[in-house]
Amino acid sequence: MNILEIIAKKRDGKELSKDEIQYFIDEYIKDNVTDYQAAALVMAIYINGMNEREITDLTLAMAYSGDVLDLSSLGNVVDKHSTGGVGDKITLILMPIIASLGIPSAKMSGRGLGFTGGTIDKLESIPGYNTQINVETFIENVKNVGISIMGQTLNLAPADKKLYALRDTISCTESIPLIASSIMSKKIAAGANKIVLDITCGSGAFMKNKEDAKKLADIMTKIGELSGRKTVCIITDMNQPVGNCVGNTLEVIEAVDILKSKYMPKDIEHIITELGANMLVLANKASNIEDGKSKILENIANGKAYEKLLQLIQSQGGDISYIENTSKFEKAKYIIEIRAKKSGIITSLDAYKVGNLSNYLGAGRLKKTDSINPRVGFVFNKKVGDTVTQGEVLGYVHADEQEKADFILEQDLFEIN
Question: What pTM does this model have?
Answer without folding.
Answer: 0.90
